[in-house]
DNA sequence: CATGAAATGCAAAACAATTGCATTAGGGTG
DNA sequence: CACCCTAATGCAATTGTTTTGCATTTCATG
């Protein structure tokens, strides 16, 4: 997704992840702004969860967006279910796209902080249903994180 | 563990979790101080992970320990592998005892922040071995967290 | 019980998240 | 296309924790 078609209200490629995300955002009441497009694009292009600082300082912001703006967008997008906020190992919150039907687990180095998405079959799905029933919790989801020392840091 | 025997260098009950934790701490070079005993006792008696603030402001501190002191103790204990720091859903870090041979998963309400330990058979153990091999990570462990809305907040 | 290292308390600094407010800019309407 | 209302934005200030510096106290050991 290096070079990319223009995203206006009327220009939509159903195959384009950014278009999908923009549509989902608009359906839920967000306006189509430059900053929104930037934030979504950055999250889509990233192969790992990003912090607020990562995004606000990204070179991929077409026009520099203020931290507060990015913060408010991330907050809204999370509430709307477009992105997810993860609590990892350090103090900062990490954000990642929710791609419909996709679930991700992560491998984090506790020394250098590197984050990798794991491409595994997550065995927690059934358990989740069971827990939902027992606990009466709704809107249940889970995070599975593996922590350890990566080869470089060992 | 309401009332409790005195914990000195020479008074040890092998059944007592606090004694065990103190021993583990001493073996790893920590001095036996009032604050250390307090922090360990509070963590042992808690049935859920606690924040720095929870501990520093706990009524169970025999003598008020400074935040910085508690912070440094928690940091050391984590490095020494006596306690574990969890990244949950809000900004603060949560700490919990590591009881040898025990593994815990958590159920967190994203609205009110309540945290419950889950007493389930965690299906991730085998997966962990597999990931350790593939990734070459060492000292691997995992956190499995379920998030959702509790019945009160739904 | 003297001594050196570790631990502590207090205050300040560092950091990331969050909010208030005045201004700007989508986007729906006439 | 001009207009209006409201959402979005930028900037600055606030909050809520975590983290560090330093002088003092306390532990553990010989």
Structure, described:
The structure is a homodimer of 154-residue chains. Chain A is of the alpha+beta class and 154 residues long. The first copy, chain A, is 34% helix and 21% strand. The first copy, chain A, contains five helices and six strands, in the order H-H-E-H-H-E-E-E-E-H-E. A three-stranded antiparallel sheet of chain A has the order 1-3-2. In chain A, strands 5-4-6 form a three-stranded mixed sheet, with helices on one face. In chain A, a hairpin with a 5-residue loop joins strand 2 (83-87) and strand 3 (93-97). In chain A, helix 1 (17-27) crosses helix 2. Chains A and B meet through helix 5 and strand 6 of A and strand 2, helix 5 and strand 6 of B. Strand 6 (138-149) of chain A pairs antiparallel with strand 6 (138-149) of chain B, so a sheet runs across the interface. Chain A binds a DNA duplex (30 and 30 nucleotides) through residues 9, 29-33, 35-36, 51-53, 65-69, 71-73, 75, 91-93.
Tags for this entry?
homodimer; 154 residues; alpha+beta; 3-stranded antiparallel beta sheet; 3-stranded mixed beta sheet; 5 helices; 6 strands; globular; DNA-binding
Outline of the structure:
With 154 residues, chain A is an alpha+beta fold.
